[in-house]
Specification:
There is one protein chain. This protein has helices at 7-11, 28-35, 53-63, 79-88, 101-111, 137-140, 154-158, 160-164, 176-182, 192-207, 219-227, 238-263, and strands at residues 18-23, 41-45, 69-73, 92-95, 146-151, 171-174, 211-215, 232-237. Strands 3-2-1-8-7-6-5-4 form an eight-stranded parallel beta sheet. The protein is globular, with a radius of gyration of 21 Å. The protein is an alpha/beta fold. The chain has one domain (7-237): Phosphoenolpyruvate-binding domains (TIM Barrel, Alpha-Beta Barrel). Strand 7 (211-215), helix 11 (219-227) and strand 8 form a beta-alpha-beta unit.
């Protein structure tokens, strides 16, 4: 079996925007539906979603049958956790709440085999190595790992220049919601000052030849950020899509019932 190429890194090599969906429901049926929907990438959210490690493993197995790139956002940057995720087959990590270049350096170190890093060797038990079925896995794995640093606080924005200098950081993903809260505008990710900060950050990321992304559910804002350099964009969340569709359907049924009662008084 050949070494799997990181399709996410390959897709981001061009200038075409890559659209993705957040997954927070651990049922693999949701992963399969989303994997076949046509997105470029899917993010398994271990930070806020109700995922255990086994759920992530099963999501990766489910998604492997589809032409979609999996990304995992772990709950923290614990090297032991990152090691287990990588052994499960994760090639792209979105690292939340990174506040400094030192933190970013620690993440990169944890994701690389020696001598470049300190990732522990356990390939005989690793799905990533196809249980020692991939020749040269240890020698070639490092180049397929993609580390995306999530910058989502005002303090992290101040450190972004130093974070961008860290060798092994492939890109930065901006978090408008947490950023807006830390800037004093909680719940208002579209505030002019937040937008200005995001645009300035996108420019810095692209100038450093790193890939730039963010989560944006607003269509007009999404196009605005793409015009200012965003390359990969989270455009939806599985729970939100389900909740909105359910509410809209229930509301439509209630409205139709009210309309029918108004046009047919005898139904009272």
């Amino acid at each position: 079996m050949d070494m799997p190429n990181n399709s996410f890194k390959k897709a981001l090599a061009n200038e075409t925007p890559a659209y993705g969906l957040w997954l927070s429901i651990p049922d693999t049926s949701v992963a399969e539906i989303a994997a076949g929907a046509g997105f470029d990438w899917l993010l398994i959210d271990h930070e806020h979603g109700n995922f255990e490690l086994r759920d992530i493993f099963h999501h990766l197995q489910t998604m492997a049958a589809y032409p979609v790139a999996p990304i995992v956002r772990p709950v923290n940057d614990d090297p032991a956790l990152l090691k287990r995720l990588l052994d499960s087959g994760v090639q792209t990590l979105l690292m939340p709440m990174i506040e400094s270049a030192e933190q970013a350096e620690s993440v990169v170190h944890a994701t690389r085999y020696p001598p470049e890093g300190g990732r522990g060797l356990g390939t005989s038990m690793a799905r990533a190595a196809h249980w020692n079925g991939i020749p040269g896995y240890i020698e070639n794995s490092n180049e397929q790992i993609c580390v995306i640093i999530q910058v989502e606080t005002a303090n992290a924005i101040e450190q972004i220049d130093d974070i961008l200098k860290v060798d092994g950081v492939d890109g930065i993903f901006l978090g408008p919601s947490d950023l807006s809260a830390s800037m004093g505008y909680p719940g208002n990710a579209g505030h002019p000052e937040v937008k200005k900060t995001l645009v300035e950050s996108l420019s810095k990321i692209r100038a450093a030849n790193k890939i730039a992304g963010l989560l944006c559910l607003d269509l007009e804002l999404r196009d605005y950020y793409i015009d200012h350099g965003a390359q990969f964009i989270g455009v939806g969340v599985d729970t939100l899509l389900l909740a909105q569709s359910a509410r809209q359907l229930a509301s439509k049924c209630r409205n139709q019932e009210e309309d029918n009662n108004e046009t047919n008084p005898a139904s009272y």
